[in-house]
Write a structure and sequence with these properties.
Blueprint: H1 3-7, H2 16-24, H3 36-45, E1 54-58, H4 63-76, E2 81-84, E3 96-98, E4 101-102, H5 105-123, H6 132-148, E5 152-156, E6 173-176, H7 184-187, H8 191-198, E7 208-210, H9 215-228, E8 232-234, E9 240-247, E10 250-256, E11 261-266, H10 271-290, H11 297-306, E12 314-318, E13 321-325, H12 330-343, E14 349-354, H13 361-368, E15 374-377, H14 388-402, E16 408-411, H15 415-425, E17 431-436, H16 438-448
Parallel strand pairs: 1-5, 1-6, 2-5, 6-7, 7-8, 13-17, 14-15, 14-17, 15-16
Antiparallel strand pairs: 2-3, 3-4, 9-10, 10-11, 12-13
Helix pairs in contact: 2-5, 3-5, 3-6, 4-10, 4-11, 5-6, 8-9, 12-13, 13-14
Length: about 450
C-alpha cells in the first residue's frame, strides 16, 4: 500500500489533545533501543530525513543548552533552524521548534494523522508498536522535511546515541558534550560503555566535536573517530576555552580554535555553560570553515548572548529568591554545587528536590548535601517517581559523612505543599533552589511563572 492511499483514510485524530493523547499513549511501549521501527517508518514515508541537514547532539548533560546556543546563533546569522529536543518543559509542542517557535497545533494534528495508519501497520507486524519517542522523532522529521524546510536542524539525541532513534539521520557535524553516569540501566555502568554508546552518533567522514574530559571516554571517542574517518575536534586539544569572569547576570570566556580565537559572552549561568558554548562554537566553526556557512562575528556573538534554556540555573522568583535547575544525575549535582556559591550570596540554602526511581541518587546527594541548610524532599507527578520517604532514608544514611550537623529535613510528598514550604522557609537573605528531575522542575516553573498550559513530559 502506498503512503498516499494509507493517508486517504478519514483522519482518526480530530484535535491537538487527541493527537498528543495518542502519541503519549505509546509510552507504555517504553524505551526500546534499536532503529528497526524508525527505519521502517522512514522507508514508508520515502526517507524524508535525507533531505535535511542535521547537527546531531549527544552527551550526558548539556545537550539542551548546546542546542540552544546553536539555534540562537544560526537564527541570528539569518538561517532558518529546526530544533528537536527532549524532554520538554512546558508543552508537548516545545520539542518541535522552527526558528524558536513551537510547531502549530493544527500541523501537529495533520502530521500525527499521517503517521497514525503507518504506526498501526508496523504495530501489527513482528517489530511491535513504535514507541512514543519513535513517533515523535518521525513527526519532527516530517515537520522539517515537508512543512517548514529549515536550512539546518539542531537534533538532540533522546538517550545514548548508537541505538537512539535519532541516529536514523546522517548529520553534517556531530557533537558529544560530555559523558557521565546516567541511564546506566540501558547504556552500561562504566564510562567506556557509556562513551561507546554516545560515540555511536559518529558517522563516516562527518566531523565530530566533543568536550569530554575523562581519559577513558576520550579514548573511546578518539578510536571511533579514527575508525569512521571523522575529523575530531576535542576540547583541550584542537580547541580550548577558559572562563574569564561572571556573575548572576552572565559570564565571558575565551575560545581558541584551529581557525581563530575570540571572547564570547553568554547569559546562561554556571561554569559548565562555558564548556557547552565552546563546543557549540567549535561546531559552528566547522560549518563556517568547511560548509560555507556565513556567520558574521557581530551576529554570532549576539546569538550566543541571547541563547536561553529554561530550567537550568534559572531564577524564577525574586521574593523569595528561588532558582530552578534540572540537575538530576551526579555530574549535574556536582556542577550545581560548584555554581551556587559562585553565583549567589546567601545566608541559608533551602533545597527542594524530587527524583525518579532509576538514578544514581547517592552520588548526587554526596555532591549537594554539604551546601544545604534545609532539605525539602518531595515527589514529581510521574509514574516512575521515587518515594520521598525512600529518598529521606538515603539522606539519613549519608548524613553523618556529608551533611551539615544542623541540617533540617522535611518530607512532603505533595510537591505543591513542598513548594509552599520552600517559599515560607526561604527568607530575604536566603536562596531557595528546586532541583532534580525535569518532571518536577516543569511543574514548579509553570506554577511560579503562572503558566496555565504546562503539560511537561519526556
Amino acid at each position: 500500500m502506498s503512503d498516499t492511499s494509507r493517508g486517504s483514510e478519514a483522519a482518526p485524530l480530530q484535535s491537538y489533545d487527541e493527537a498528543v493523547e495518542w502519541i503519549n499513549g505509546l509510552i507504555p511501549f517504553g524505551i526500546r533501543p534499536g532503529l528497526e521501527r524508525i527505519e521502517q517508518l522512514m522507508s514508508m514515508l520515502g526517507e524524508p530525513q535525507r533531505h535535511l541537514k542535521f547537527v546531531h547532539v549527544a552527551g550526558t548533560n548539556g545537550k539542551g543548552s548546546t542546542c540552544a546556543f546553536l539555534t540562537s546563533v544560526l537564527m541570528k546569522c539569518g538561517y532558518d533552524v529546526g530544533t528537536f529536543t527532549s524532554p520538554y518543559i512546558t508543552r508537548f509542542t516545545n520539542r518541535f521548534q522552527f526558528n524558536g517557535v513551537d510547531i502549530p497545533d493544527e500541523t501537529l494534528v495533520l502530521l500525527a494523522n499521517r503517521l497514525y495508519p503507518l504506526v498501526k501497520e508496523i504495530a501489527a507486524g513482528e517489530l511491535g508498536s513504535p514507541t512514543m519517542f519513535e513517533v515523535s522523532t518521525a513527526l519532527a522529521i516530517l515537520y522539517y522535511a515537508t512543512v517548514s524546510f529549515p536550512d539546518v536542524v539542531v537534533w538532540e539525541t533522546g538517550l545514548g546515541g548508537r541505538m537512539d532513534v535519532t541516529n536514523i539521520v546522517n548529520p553534517i557535524v556531530s557533537i558529544i558534550t560530555n559523558v557521565g553516569y546516567d541511564h546506566t540501566d540501558i547504556l552500561g555502568d562504566t564510562l567506556e560503555q557509556i562513551a561507546g554508546e554516545k560515540a555511536g552518533i559518529i558517522k563516516p567522514g562527518v566531523p565530530v566535536v566533543s568536550c569530554v574530559s575523562q581519559p577513558e571516554a576520550m579514548r573511546v571517542i578518539r578510536e571511533m573517530a579514527v575508525r569512521r574517518g571523522s575529523a575530531l575536534y576535542l576540547a583541550g586539544e584542537q580547541f580550548t576555552y577558559e572562563r574569564l569572569n561572571g556573575d548572576e547576570t552572565g559570564q565571558t570566556f575565551s575560545f581558541a580554535g584551529p581557525f581563530r580565537s575570540m571572547e564570547i559572552g553568554i547569559t546562561l549561568l554556571g561554569e559548565h555553560q562555558c564548556a557547552n558554548a565552546a563546543g557549540a562554537m567549535m561546531a559552528l566553526e566547522v560549518l563556517r570553515q568547511y560548509m560555507a556557512f556565513v556567520l558574521e562575528d557581530d551576529e554570532l556573538l549576539e546569538g550566543f548572548k541571547q541563547a536561553a534554556w529554561a530550567g537550568r540555573l534559572e531564577q524564577v522568583s525574586t521574593s523569595p529568591r528561588i532558582v530552578i535547575d534540572g540537575a538530576h544525575n551526579p555530574e549535574g549535582a556536582q556542577t550545581l554545587a560548584k555554581s551556587l556559591p559562585q553565583l549567589y550570596s546567601y545566608r541559608k540554602l533551602v533545597l527542594m528536590m524530587g527524583m525518579l526511581s532509576n538514578k544514581h541518587h547517592e552520588a548526587y546527594l554526596q555532591h549537594i548535601l554539604p551546601l544545604v541548610d534545609t532539605l525539602i524532599l518531595t515527589e514529581p507527578v510521574f509514574r516512575r517517581k521515587m518515594d520521598a520517604a525512600e529518598l529521606a532514608h538515603l539522606v539519613e544514611k549519608l548524613r553523618p559523612s556529608y551533611a551539615k550537623t544542623d541540617l533540617e529535613i522535611i518530607v512532603e510528598g505533595d510537591w505543591k505543599k513542598a513548594l509552599a514550604l520552600l517559599q515560607s522557609h526561604t527568607e530575604a537573605e536566603d536562596l531557595g533552589v528546586v532541583s532534580g528531575t525535569l518532571y518536577l522542575i516543569s511543574d514548579v516553573r509553570a506554577t511560579l511563572m503562572h503558566q496555565t498550559d504546562s503539560e511537561k513530559g519526556w
